[in-house]
Backbone:
């Protein structure tokens, strides 16, 4: 009797074990495939594929881009919510790096470091990089943030549950939670303007042509000639986010 | 199969069936068409209200100013860069000529010192040469807090615009 | 809203260095510290139960039923801090309808359902079904109704059905162990897979979470067992308690080794984020990391439990030590979660500065709210212990059918 019982339970144990092992194997292969599909691939040359270029050599830090963005997209006024902002880097002669962005640059900058201590100083405008391998779309649990076929990363504010996982996942600090809507918000590349043939507000307003916007799939676009004629880099390339925001004259101190 | 196992399977079966049913009912209609998202969301984002008009819209009424500006050092500045978003203003003005503009649609005139300081305040980070292809493409920088601050005549603080015409600096 | 803004302005004035403008507000607060803590307790309690069932450590029998019920009580509460922290909690069902499979968080809905329905509820059902049928006959009113409902109105209490139940329960426990690992491991993966945050991004994160979960869950059951026996005025089974303490000691060693390895590796490689993290750890995080988590949560319990392996004081002294140590461990592991979640948001992703964290008493993410989520599982456990008391289980009954 006893021997029979233990033989039965051993068989059941192996059966159960095989089911578990098979299940784990299948589910892990599914997971890998889905893991690779975290954002759209470059469109393969067909259709529009939007990218952004910023020339640090031309930015005068007027902050009008950040301000225009807030006005165009009804972003709350307080200095905690920015779709786009400008940073000032001051590298002192003793090697220390000072970074500032008072109200995102909207109220202008003051140079607190005396001239003789400054080794180098420049402005860096920041905005959503519209990554094509974006970690933010990868981690959204419900599919409320996504990559359009034209390469714009958008948020579905009617579907977002406000879990804030995407805010944690963005390496560039582009996302914030809207204080009234309680959903996540960020730069939409002014898609509402693009659809009407207009430029995004920040590109429209920039007085020095420091911001270039264009179609990466169009060989004649101003963005492609910008990329060809300058030495461009993305921020945090080691994270492999597929960032489509290319900076000219990006200095090594910029994060 | 013992009765209690059958009953258990029945309960689980009902639960799973209900779950799948609810999933189908609650799934949004446009979900999954283009990717793991509601493709309606693209249109919803695109339907947002515009606020900036673009220079072409200003020129139809304010062409003299535009011409004046285009010949000078502020040529690269769009009207809205200083005056703020003007689409509502342009639409209203375009449809009701002759009516006075409501206060909310009057665009700002940034005449304070701090408004000019946004671009012209002296700062080591501010580039000197703007465009290699344009003659005289220096961006002049001053300390806006001090440059000709007090009027010797009126003994009051002067605005930049009292000496410099922003449309023809 | 105005209060919230005021907090943000205050935080803005306390910013140290440079942070991205959007980083001023901490996105994940004490509720997100609580969630991994609670699921960790669940996983740990279940592992303790499985030590008895699968690994045949029958000396742990007195805590078997208690561990399962503790796991259930805490599992029921687990999603509540998560849902209450959402910006749009009424949309929480979307995780079940359109889970985005590339997101670790999307797995939550299904792993949770699986663990609740298939593992925990079924195991408890197979373990208690026969008893519920017998107890139904011995009670009346609400209690009788509850027994009837939960046993699905079955009446079979034959030894054959009991043997079948035991076998199926065994299989479920076997499935339950990797499921428990998955339930809590994926939480570690949620943090460990964020490449944007170097305090979180490490391969070891799921493993560290898992082992600290086991430590906290076992300590919890030990604590509840001691307190429960005192309430019931019964003698504690010291053999059981000593064995629990022994396994707690072993797993604590592994947990300590893993966390130590993570830090040593980070210090040795000293990659881009190292200077910023070093300043964080020696500054804002010093007290919660070195004192609360390190000293009280790990080192003191390790030394104490280690000493007890060689030097055995009397029963009373040992029981008191176990009580204190389990409380220390529970607090220490809570701070481990705190240091991961809050610590990871205190420094800027630009590595140029730090923000500050303030938590209030009231409000949707205040201490009181967190306190509620900690107290409620104990209330549920009390109900479960009233309904399904492990000490009243009838192993020896022989009648074939109850009327």
Residues:
């Amino acid at each position: 009797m006893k021997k029979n019982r233990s033989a039965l339970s051993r068989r059941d144990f192996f059966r159960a074990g095989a089911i578990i092992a098979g299940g784990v194997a299948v589910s892990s292969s599914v997971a890998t495939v889905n893991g690779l599909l975290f954002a759209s691939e470059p469109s393969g040359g067909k259709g529009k594929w939007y990218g952004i270029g910023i020339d640090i050599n031309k930015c005068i830090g007027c902050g009008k881009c950040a301000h225009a963005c807030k006005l165009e997209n009804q972003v709350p006024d307080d200095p905690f919510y920015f779709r786009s902002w400008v940073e000032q880097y001051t590298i002192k002669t003793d090697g220390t790096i000072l970074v500032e962005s008072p109200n995102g640059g909207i109220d202008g900058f003051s140079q607190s470091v005396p001239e003789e201590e400054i080794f180098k100083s420049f402005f860096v405008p920041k905005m959503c990089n519209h990554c094509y391998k974006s970690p933010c779309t990868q981690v959204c649990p419900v599919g409320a943030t996504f990559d359009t076929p034209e390469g714009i990363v958008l948020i579905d504010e009617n579907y977002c549950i406000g879990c804030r996982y995407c805010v944690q996942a963005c390496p560039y600090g582009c996302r914030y939670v809207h204080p009234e809507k309680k959903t996540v918000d960020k730069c939409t590349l002014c898609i509402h303007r693009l659809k009407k043939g207009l430029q995004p507000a920040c590109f429209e307003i920039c007085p020095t042509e420091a911001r270039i916007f264009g179609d990466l799939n169009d060989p004649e676009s101003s963005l492609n000639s910008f990329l060809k004629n300058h030495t461009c880099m993305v921020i945090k390339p080691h994270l492999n986010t597929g960032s489509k925001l290319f900076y000219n004259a990006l200095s090594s101190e910029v994060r | 199969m013992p009765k209690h196992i059958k009953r258990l399977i029945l309960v689980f079966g009902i639960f799973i069936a209900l779950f799948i049913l609810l999933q189908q009912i609650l799934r949004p209609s446009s979900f999954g068409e283009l990717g793991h998202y509601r493709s309606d969301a693209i249109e919803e984002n695109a339907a947002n209200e515009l606020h900036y008009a673009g220079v072409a819209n200003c020129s139809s009424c304010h062409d003299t100013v535009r011409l004046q500006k285009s010949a000078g050092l502020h040529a690269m500045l769009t009207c809205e860069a200083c005056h703020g978003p003007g689409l509502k203003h342009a639409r209203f003005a375009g449809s009701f000529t002759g009516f006075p503009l409501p206060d909310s649609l009057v665009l700002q005139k940034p005449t304070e010192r701090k408004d000019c300081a946004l671009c012209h305040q002296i700062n080591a980070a501010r580039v000197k040469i703007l465009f290699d292809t344009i003659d005289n493409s220096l961006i002049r920088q001053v300390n806006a807090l001090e440059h000709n601050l007090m009027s010797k005549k009126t003994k009051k603080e002067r605005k930049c615009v009292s000496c410099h015409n922003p449309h023809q600096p | 809203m105005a209060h919230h803004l005021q907090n943000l302005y205050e935080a803005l004035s306390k910013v140290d260095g440079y942070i991205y403008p959007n980083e001023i507000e901490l996105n994940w607060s004490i509720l997100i510290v609580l969630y991994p803590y609670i699921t960790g307790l669940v996983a740990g309690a279940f592992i303790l139960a499985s030590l008895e069932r699968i690994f045949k450590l029958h000396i742990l029998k007195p805590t078997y039923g208690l561990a399962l019920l503790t796991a259930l009580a805490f599992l029921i509460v687990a999603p509540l801090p998560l849902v209450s922290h959402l910006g749009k909690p009424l949309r929480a069902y979307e995780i079940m309808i359109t889970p985005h499979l590339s997101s670790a968080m999307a797995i939550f809905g299904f792993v949770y359902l699986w663990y609740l329905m298939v593992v925990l509820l079924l195991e408890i059902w197979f373990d208690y079904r026969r008893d519920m049928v017998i107890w139904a006959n011995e009670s009346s009113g609400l209690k009788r109704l509850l027994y009837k409902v939960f046993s699905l109105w079955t009446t079979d209490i034959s030894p054959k059905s009991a043997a079948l139940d035991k076998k199926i329960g065994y299989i479920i426990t076997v499935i339950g162990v990797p499921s428990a690992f998955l339930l809590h491991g994926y939480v570690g993966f949620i943090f460990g897979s964020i490449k944007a945050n170097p305090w979180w991004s490490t391969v070891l994160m799921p493993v560290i979470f898992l082992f600290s979960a086991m430590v906290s869950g076992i300590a919890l059951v030990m604590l509840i067992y001691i307190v429960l026996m005192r309430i019931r005025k019964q003698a504690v089974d010291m053999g059981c308690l000593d064995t629990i303490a022994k396994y707690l000691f072993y797993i604590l060693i592994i947990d300590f080794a893993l966390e130590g390895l993570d830090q040593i590796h980070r210090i040795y490689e000293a990659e881009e984020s190292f200077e910023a993290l070093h300043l964080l750890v020696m500054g804002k995080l010093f007290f919660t990391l070195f004192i609360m988590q390190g000293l009280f949560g790990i080192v003191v319990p390790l030394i104490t439990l280690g000493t007890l392996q060689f030097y055995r004081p009397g029963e009373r002294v040992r029981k008191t030590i176990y009580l204190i140590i389990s409380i220390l461990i529970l607090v220490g592991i809570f701070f481990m979660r705190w240091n991961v979640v809050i610590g990871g948001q205190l420094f800027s992703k630009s590595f140029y500065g730090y923000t500050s964290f303030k938590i209030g008493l009231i409000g949707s993410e205040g201490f009181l709210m967190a306190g509620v989520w900690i107290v409620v599982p104990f209330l549920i456990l009390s109900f479960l212990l009233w309904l399904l008391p492990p000490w009243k289980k009838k192993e020896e009954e022989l009648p074939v059918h109850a009327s």
User: Anything to note?
Assistant: The two ends of chain B are 94 Å apart (CA to CA). The interface with chain A takes residues 28, 31, 34-38, 41-42, 44-52, 54, 76-78, 80-81, 84-85, 114, 117-119, 121-127, 130-131, 139 of chain B (CB under 8 Å). The helical segments of chain B are 3-26, 40-46, 55-59, 63-70, 79-83, 87-95, 113-120. Chain B has seven helices and no strands.
